[in-house]
Structure formats: C-alpha cells, structure tokens
Amino acid sequence: TCGFVAIVGRPNVGKSTLMNRILGQKVSITSRRPQTTRHQVMGIKTEDDAQFIYVDTPGMHIMSKDRNKAINHFMNQAATQALRDVDCVVFIIDRTRWSDEDQAVLKRLEHVKAPVILAVNKVDRLQDKATLLPWLSEVGARRDFAAIVPISAKHGTQVDTLEEEVAKYL
Ligand code: GDP
Ligand code: MG
C-alpha cells in the first residue's frame, strides 16, 4: 500500500524537524520549488508492507499577510489542491500556544475529507507536565481529530506513535 501524508502547520512549529525525524536516512526525494521563497519538500519512507509519501505543505499560513499578491494566491491554491488528494493530514501545533495562524490553518482544513491527526509538538519544553492534559482537551475540541498525539519532533519522543496513527489511514 501507498499513502500520501501532508504535514501542515504555521511557520516554526516543527514541520521540517518532524519530517526529517520520520524520514531519517530514508529520504528518497527532496525538491525545491523555484520562484517562491518557500520550499515544498517531499520524502518517501518505505517499510516492509507500506510506502509513505510525506509532503511538507507550503502556503498554508499565507492567510492574512499580503492577501492580494498573486504569488500568495497561487501558493494557497497549490496548498488546497495538495490537500485534496491526501490520505491523511498531520496538523502540527505548539505545546502551549494557540495562535491566529493556527486557527487559519485549521480553517483551511475545514473541507478536507481525509482524517486529520493533531500533533502537539515540543513537549520536551513543557515546564509543567500537568498543563498538558487540559491543553490537549482544549485544542482537541476545535475539530473532530482522528487522533491527538503529543510529540517532540526534535528528540523523537512519541513520533513512532504518531506514525502508527498515520499508518491506520493508508
Ligand atoms: P517549520 O517552520 O514548521 O518547518 O519548523 P522547523 O522544523 O524549522 O522548526 C522550527 C524551530 O523549532 C527549530 O529551531 C527547531 O529546532 C525547533 N523545534 C522543532 N521541533 C522541536 C521540538 O520537538 N522541541 C524543541 N525544543 N524544538 C523544536
Ligand atoms: Mg519548514
């Protein structure tokens, strides 16, 4: 089986770190899109019985700034198009903060039919672990997520659990 997985989230939330962590040494393809300052990166991970194609989706965050620029329109179109055909979306947010940009990304996912898995990243930086559960239930109420997984992309914590959740939708 073969599955397309889109990794979405506002800038700096850890998309590239997660992708590198998941793909490890097994990166087959990386590609840059010229003409834009933002790169779309794609990677393939092959396991015994499955192949995952990960796409670090650009253009999801260009909601409010420079709305009128043609390039932004194009990027938004490309991002929307990319999400139409995926089997699964991994939506990454930070461990402590829900911003307008996160909200904007979530709004872009409104019409996505594929399951959306929420990855709450950077939990290694949590000061007080007790704040995590209430936070998860708060953000978890914003959409009917297929799963909610706290992770540390940087340290690899629970990334395997996230991958298991993704694998359910191939
Ligand atoms: P992107 O813009 O969403 O692709 O985010 P990046 O993957 O480039 O990460 C942005 C910053 O957050 C970088 O400095 C990363 O090292 C850092 N970062 C990403 N994941 C984690 C994590 O799990 N824990 C910590 N402490 N930092 C992280
Ligand atoms: Mg990135």
From TrEMBL:
Keyword flag rRNA-binding = yes
Keyword annotations for this protein, in alphabetical order, are:
Cell membrane, Cytoplasm, GTP-binding, Membrane, Nucleotide-binding, Ribosome biogenesis, RNA-binding, rRNA-binding
Region of interest (G5), ranges: 151-153
* Keyword Cytoplasm listed: yes
**Annotated positions binding GTP:** 9-16, 56-60, 121-124
Which segments carry the region annotation G2? 35-39
Question: Which cellular compartments is it found in?
Answer: Cytoplasm; Cell membrane
Q: How does it sit in the membrane?
A: Peripheral membrane protein
Region: G1; residue ranges are: 9-16
Residue ranges for the region (G3) are 56-59
Q: Which positions fall inside the Era-type G domain?
A: 1-170
Q: Where is this region: G4?
A: 121-124
Query: Self-association or partners: how does it assemble?
Result: Monomer.
Cited function = An essential GTPase that binds both GDP and GTP, with rapid nucleotide exchange. Plays a role in 16S rRNA processing and 30S ribosomal subunit biogenesis and possibly also in cell cycle regulation and energy metabolism.
| Family under the similarity heading | Belongs to the TRAFAC class TrmE-Era-EngA-EngB-Septin-like GTPase superfamily. Era GTPase family.
Protein name (database record): GTPase Era
Please name the source species. Answer: Vreelandella vilamensis
Full-sequence range covered: 4 to 173 of 299
